[in-house]
Design brief:
This protein has 126 residues and is mainly α. It is 43% helix and 7% strand. The chain has helices at residues 3-42, 70-76, 113-119, and strands at 52-53, 59-62, 92-94.
């Protein structure tokens, strides 16, 4: 490979990495809106809880709950038998699940009016 070909390949790889990062950032924004809309539709559910960590699929980890074994993580997903056992972690919940540990310290009034309308929060948050 010539020096020029090496530079071109390096630039190509950098472009691919930058493109993937941009796509991920766009998805993160879209998924946050999905979660916000779910929260305003269903009320105090996991999708709006500060303890919930999710990046896809309307399923996430409840960090308010104590960590459990990998087998228990799988059970929290509704799986009773699986050939894969993940590492221990927090139990998983669905975005619409509700519990008594709900917490939302976010200041919704800081968001754009049009966004609040899209997620169904306008009129509730002013």
């Amino acid at each position: 490979m010539t020096d020029l070909q090496g530079k071109i390949e390096t630039l190509r790889q950098q472009f691919i990495a930058a493109s993937a990062a941009r796509q991920r950032a766009d998805w993160d924004i879209e998924y946050q809106e999905i979660c916000d809309r779910t929260y305003w539709e269903f009320g105090q559910c996991c999708a709006g809880c500060d303890h919930w960590r999710s990046d896809m699929g309307n399923v996430g980890e409840c960090t308010a709950a104590a960590p459990v074994s990998g087998v228990e993580v799988m059970k929290s997903l509704g799986l009773t038998s699986c050939s894969y056992t993940p590492a221990p972690g927090h139990p998983c919940t669905r975005s619409t699940d509700k519990c008594g540990k709900f917490k939302d310290d976010f200041d919704w009034s800081t968001l754009d009016r049009n966004y609040l309308i899209r997620i169904g929060a306008f009129g509730v948050v002013t």
